Amino acid sequence: MMTIVHNVFRRKVRALLTIFGITIGVFALVVMGSMAEKINLMVDGGTRYYQDKVIVSDASMAGGAFSSAPLSIATIPDIEAAEGVARASAGVFMLLDDEQGMSMGVPQMLVGSDDRARGYESFALTVAKGRDLLPDDRGTTVLGTDLARALDAEVGKTVIMRGREFEVVGIYDKTLTAPDNTAAVPLADAQELLFEGLPAMVQTQIASEQLATSITAYPEPGVDPDLLAGTIEAQVSGVKASGPQVFMDQFESGTRIFNSIIFGVALVALLVGGLSVVNTMIMAVSERTREIGIRKAIGASRGQIVRQFLAESTLIGFLGGVSGLLLGWLATLGVNAVMGSSGTILFLVTGRLALGSLLFAIVLGISSGLYPSLHASRLRPVVALRYE
Amino acid sequence: MTNDTLTLDAAYTGPLATAGVRPETIVSAHGLTKRYQLGKDNFVDALRGATMQVWAGEMVAIMGPSGCGKSTLLHMLGCLDAPDSGEVRLDGSRVDNIGDRATTQLLRTKIGFIFQGFNLVPTMSALDNVAVAGQYAGRRRSQAQAAARRALQAVGLAERAGHRPSELSGGQQQRVAIARALVNHPLVIFGDEPTGNLDSASSSEVTAMMRDISVTTGTTFILVTHDPDVASACDRTIFMKDGVVTRDSGLETAWADEAA
Fold first, then answer.
1. What's the gap between Cα A309 and its chain centre?
2. Which CATH superfamily is domain B3-110+189-259 in?
3. Percent of chain B with pLDDT over 90
4. Distance (Å, whole) CA A95 – CA A246
């Protein structure tokens, strides 16, 4: 092993520059990849949330759970009457701040739900500190961890959301997905906030306690939620029902772009890092032609020569991979720490990303060293020994 | 005497002859030719039908003017290069044009090499330079290192095992190279100007060491050299000119004895 290290660092500056080339590639891969991992995790969370339910919203809007068009909770009996619906539950979803800018993740949300989903909702949130909301609560909230940090909130303190004071009674466990940026409030509070934002003309037509932005329909066991969505639309007038497939299609189109970016970064890393390794190894073979001749003259097989040079290129790839991974990891930690105060966690370095990046760098080292190694192994000893 | 008058059955006159022992032929070449192309229309005939024979346990020098084909012949006898025509035998078997795998096996088990420029790997210690030949031959690292220590002990360099080539004198480097050639107990050690880069004191020391190893272990040495002192330490000297063997001191002695 020490011989391999010595051989790689015979030309220290050249070796370090080559390793640096791979470091940059892996750094980019880790940073972009960790962003994709974060988004994929949120998408996973969304997929899990929507997988076993149908979101019913006003037919005039197609915003699904994030629709702000009001819907009357009087539709709940009609929805529950549809064949295959086990339970329907009203919810009010709204942006925490209508003015919040573009976000890389899920926006900060304020959510109020009735108690009807209890026993049907499979996406369970657990409370890390304090307590969950109770049916008779008013003016209370349980915050997601990222939102709690962004609002500098703790259990027992009050926070102001959409101009109204709420007492923080609990903070949810981290989910690494949308609920981390969500404030759960009693349905009645959410309904009042929604009502206040409605045009005066609409306010005259509907009472605050009748408001919802969506109604979640839970299927009976064995009922396909996508098929159930069609059934609900057919049987309940004035609503749009969206099954899991609708949300998955939305998520997929979003993640496809990110995955393309990651693939592009990986390709650039492959080209830049790989070519620098190829160049370095060709130089190494050229400089050590005589040594190759000696080794062959004392009994080295072609395979042993190939392994020797491949070990060196693999070491270059490994060192570049480790340093790129470390730098990328530190960079994502730094950015997360800075942006985390505003509730935006952009990066997530997962085990598979770390391992994948490292393996990528090693495979890059191996594949880039293959041609120079094979070339070295094919040298005839008598020719190599004459080389000056 | 011309190359044509040499026969492969010539009488052995090496050191064992006086004890009445007639050893086997260990290396022989017959009618070797080799042409190198240096440019589009520029060819050099390095060998033009070289024929020679070496018996087991002999120490033989090959001498001749620069460019006469000594090193080319040595490389072919040692399987580092292949002739265009002719035949090379080592330990009773044809070894010309035998392919990479078989050549590698021979270089690991039956052949050792010593070069003018020492040719040690600069990043490795003396011990590792010797041990690597043992590892190539299939020994485990620990076994190869133990064998390397014994070989370095044999050449008087046990104390310098941890030094890199740049920390050793020329004579010491060549002794490391001899240890490396010896470590797999080859039948034949080929030396291409083994004292060419040494001062006269180191040259004498290295020559005496090879002589001693030849006598004590029975290892055959075939040395290309310009140095008459090296040649005089050998059992016989083969002279070459223009790609052919022109004289063999051992055979002349034998014929002189027969004539007398």
1. 38
2. P-loop containing nucleotide triphosphate hydrolases (3.40.50.300)
3. 57
4. 21
Tell me which residue has tokens 């060293």: A369
On whether any CB of chain A is under 8 Å from the CB of B55, the answer is no
The answer to whether A298 contacts chain B (CB < 8 Å) is yes
Q: How far apart are CA A172 and CA A123, in angstroms?
A: 13
Whole-Å CA distances, A70 to A18, A91, A184, A240: 60, 10, 19, 12
Chain B hits for A307, Cβ within 8 Å: none
Average pLDDT, chain B: 86
Q: Does any CB of chain B come closer than 8 Å to the CB of residue A294?
A: yes
**Torsion over CA: A334, A339, A343, A345 (sign):** negative
pLDDT in tens, chain A (388 residues): 777 787 777 778 888 888 888 898 889 888 888 888 888 887 888 788 888 889 998 877 554 444 556 888 888 999 999 889 999 999 999 888 876 655 556 788 999 988 888 888 888 889 999 999 988 899 999 999 989 988 889 999 999 999 899 999 999 998 877 888 899 999 999 999 988 888 888 788 888 888 899 999 999 998 999 999 999 989 888 888 998 888 888 778 777 877 788 778 777 877 877 888 888 888 888 888 888 888 989 999 999 999 988 898 899 999 999 999 999 999 999 988 887 776 677 788 889 989 998 998 898 888 888 888 888 888 888 888 876 6
For the beta carbon of residue B226, count every other beta carbon within 10 angstroms.
15
Question: Is A299 touching B (CB cutoff 8 A)?
Answer: yes
Q: Which residue of B has its CA nearest to A11?
A: B123
Are A95 and A107 in contact, with CB atoms under 8 Å apart? yes
Measured distance CA(B78)–CA(B63) in Å, rounded: 17
* Residue of chain B nearest A304, judged by CA positions: B136
Tens of pLDDT along B159-198?
A: 999 999 999 999 899 999 999 998 999 999 999 988 888 8
B137 in A contact zone (CB under 8 Å): yes
Distance between A315 CA and the closest CA of chain B, angstroms: 17
Tokens of A27: 């750094």
Residue ranges covered by each domain of chain A: 2-43+251-386, 54-242
Within 10 Å of residue A156's Cβ, how many Cβ atoms?
10
> Phi/psi at A242 (nearest 5 deg)?
-120, 125
Smallest CA–CA distance, residue A1 to chain B, in Å, is 12
Structure tokens at A309: 């040079």
The answer to whether B40 contacts chain A (CB < 8 Å) is: no
In angstroms, the Cα distances linking B51 to A325, B27, B192 are 63, 11, 18
> Closest to A297 (Cβ–Cβ): which among B80, B101, B137?
B80
Contacts across the A-B interface (CB distance below 8 Å): 59
- CB-based contact B91:B23 (threshold 8 Å): no
Beta carbons within 10 angstroms of residue A89's beta carbon:
24
Burial class (CB in 10 A: 0-12, 13-18, 19+), A282: middle
